[in-house]
């Protein structure tokens, strides 16, 4: 069965501190991995995807197939990073499966 | 472009009432989805459609129905509202699952309360 685990419901960090949002997945085959973000009073939107190997708003995510993890990282958190973050794999003929999400709170 | 438009934004229903949540997209996307978001539970897929005339069940389809008569519209029907259907509902679309795998465009959501 496809499953996504985001172990932290809430993660609080101080501004300027490093942040890591964890994501582990169980998925048959070789899925693509995505991070979605929902800022306060905004729509859910794509943050980044592993296949692009990009850095968006200072965030990066490395796919570790051995550990089946796709943790989201940023070296220096900013207040505007406060949001709800969702990890999601996609593959085969099935739509995205979302994790339960982690609320990141960056404290000034 | 308006993107994905959902109506209404808020609604309160009594138990047993029916309603339709509307979703329209103007990006000519062939894939459309309905998710519900419960506090602390993430997003769960209700139904999805890969094109006009084709729909399929997601993880939590019970109590809902959908139709896809046009590429643009994907309404979600609640026939007999129950308190368990109190949630925030999100509609989303994507161009094709292969060409834009995982890149979903979301609507702003419908907050539904069943009392």
Q: What would you say this structure looks like, in words?
A:
The complex is a heterodimer of chains A (108) and B (115). In chain A, 0% of the residues lie in helices and 47% in strands. Chain A is mainly β. Chain A has a 5-stranded mixed beta sheet with strand order 2-10-9-5-6, with no helix packed on it. In chain A, strands 3-8-7 form a 3-stranded antiparallel beta sheet, with no helix packed on it. Chain A is globular. The termini of chain A are far apart. The model of chain A has no long low-confidence stretch (mean pLDDT 90). In chain B, strand 5 and strand 6 form a beta hairpin. In chain B, the strands form 2 sheets. In chain B, strands 2, 4, 5, 6, 9, 10 and 11 form a 7-stranded mixed beta sheet that branches. Chain B contains no helices and 11 strands. Helices cover 0% and strands 50% of the residues of chain B.
Question: What are its keywords?
Answer:
heterodimer; A: 108 residues; mainly beta; five-stranded mixed β-sheet; three-stranded antiparallel β-sheet; 0% helix; 47% strand; globular; B: mainly beta; Immunoglobulin-like; seven-stranded mixed β-sheet
Main sheet specs of chain B: 7 strands, mixed
The total number of structural domains of chain B is 1
Task: Report the sheet-strand fraction of chain B.
Answer: over 45%
What's the mean pLDDT score of chain A? 90
- CATH fourth-tier homologous superfamily of chain A: Immunoglobulins
Could you please say which CATH topology of chain B applies here?
A: Immunoglobulin-like
Which parts of chain A are unreliable, with pLDDT below 50 for 5 consecutive residues or more? Answer: none
Q: What composes the largest sheet of chain A?
A: 5 strands, mixed
Radius of gyration of chain B: 13 Å
CATH architectural label of chain A: Sandwich
Strand order of the largest sheet of chain A: 2-10-9-5-6
Helix % of chain B is under 10%
Structural class, from secondary structure content of chain A? mainly beta
| CATH architecture identity of chain B | Sandwich
Assembly context of the chains:
heterodimer
- Kindly state the mean pLDDT of chain B as a whole number? 92
**Sequence of secondary-structure elements of chain A:** EEEEEEEEEE
Identify the biggest protein-protein contact and residues per side.
A-B, 23 and 22 residues
Q: Structural class, judged by helices and strands of chain B?
A: mainly beta
């Amino acid at each position: 069965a496809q499953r996504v685990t985001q172990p932290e419901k809430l993660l609080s960090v101080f501004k300027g501190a490093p942040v890591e949002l964890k994501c582990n997945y169980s998925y048959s085959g070789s899925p693509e991995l995505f991070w979605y973000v929902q800022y306060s009073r905004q729509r859910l939107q794509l943050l980044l995807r592993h296949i692009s190997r990009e850095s968006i708003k200072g965030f990066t995510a490395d796919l570790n197939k051995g550990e089946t993890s796709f943790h989201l990282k940023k070296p220096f958190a900013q207040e505007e990073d406060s949001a709800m973050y969702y990890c999601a794999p996609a593959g085969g003929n099935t739509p995205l499966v979302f994790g339960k999400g982690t609320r990141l709170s960056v404290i000034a | 472009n308006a993107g994905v438009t959902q109506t209404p934004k808020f609604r309160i229903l009594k138990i047993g009432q029916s309603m339709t949540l509307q979703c329209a997209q103007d990006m000519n996307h062939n894939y459309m989805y309905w998710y519900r978001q419960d506090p602390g539970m993430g997003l769960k897929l209700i139904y999805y459609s890969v094109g006009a005339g084709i729909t399929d069940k997601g993880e939590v389809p019970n109590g809902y129905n959908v139709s896809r008569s046009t590429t643009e519209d994907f309404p979600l029907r609640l026939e007999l509202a129950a308190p368990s259907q109190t949630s925030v509902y999100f509609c989303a679309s994507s161009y094709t699952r292969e060409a834009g795998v995982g890149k979903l465009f979301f609507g702003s959501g419908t907050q539904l309360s069943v009392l």
